[in-house]
Amino acid sequence: MTQAEFTKKGKIVNLEDYYTDNGAFDDDGWVRFIKALGNLMTVEEYNNFVEVADIEWPNGTIAHYLITRDGVMHISGGLWDGIIKFETTYPFHELVIEEGITVIGNFNFSEWNQLEEVTIPHSVEEIGRAAFWKCQNLKRVNLAEGLKVIGPDAFGGCKALETINFPKSLHEVWEYAFDGCDRLPDDILPDELDPSGCVFGD
Predict the structure, then answer these.
(1) Are 170 and 144 in contact (CB under 8 A)?
(2) Distance between CA 50 and CA 69 in Å, rounded?
(3) Given CA atoms 158, 159, 162, 165 in this order, what sign does their dihedral have?
(4) Contact partners, residue 118, CB within 8 Å, separation at least 6
(5) What is the chain's mean pLDDT, rounded?
(6) Rounded to 5 degrees, what angle do the CA atoms 194, 195, 198 make?
(7) Per residue in 164-196, pLDDT tens?
(8) CB 88 within 8 A of CB 94
(9) Does 114 or 82 have the greater pLDDT score?
């Protein structure tokens, strides 16, 4: 094993090749190098991803995204209120929001029509207004314990949505949260979550 190679679970990764290609040895190289060691990839993980980048939002928050060969986008870091658009070169159909993000902002993923499945982690406590509005091909949403609030119009217009689970931690669902989700039964919400507002629209 050469000096530039490290192992994780018995697999060898050429850390230098990977992280120099992705800017880890630029300005704040040493700090990023130490962080890189903590997130060391296996050979299989390294070979699986096709695109990775950092995005800085107008409020200074930075998000990190990675797209794998099987069409999954992973987002970590931070989000902000507003429509999020990524200039990607590789197609993806599934979104995985990583642990550490606590709020999905208003309109973040609205009209992401390529999405078919979304996975939201335990750390997310709130899904904002129209966060996934008009994701017209979204079929499956996986929610984790820890989610407390689903905002108004959060999944409005997701006409293909057919599968969603509601964790026990959820205690507030705002009006029109599932407006236009015609494939979901009207009685899908637990009784204790049925608000006075109109969750499904007219």
Answers:
(1) no
(2) 6
(3) positive
(4) 94, 95, 96, 97, 109, 132, 138, 140, 141, 142
(5) 82
(6) 100
(7) 999 999 989 998 999 999 999 877 887 777 555
(8) no
(9) 114
Taking the C-alpha atoms of residue 184 and residue 163, their distance in angstroms, rounded to an integer, is: 7
Structure tokens of 197?
């507002």
Token output for 140 = 């499956």
Q: Give the residue from 75, 67, 74, 71 showing the smallest Cα distance to 49.
A: 67
For residue 147, give both structure tokens.
């989610």
The sheet that has 140-142: what strands, in order across it?
49-56, 62-68, 72-77, 94-97, 117-119, 140-142, 163-164
CATH code of the domain made up of 51-193: 3.80.10
Give which of 187, 188, 132 is closest to 160, Cα–Cα.
Answer: 132
Domain ranges of the chain: 1-41, 51-193
pLDDT by residue (tens digit) across 50-91?
888 888 888 888 888 999 999 999 999 989 888 888 888 899
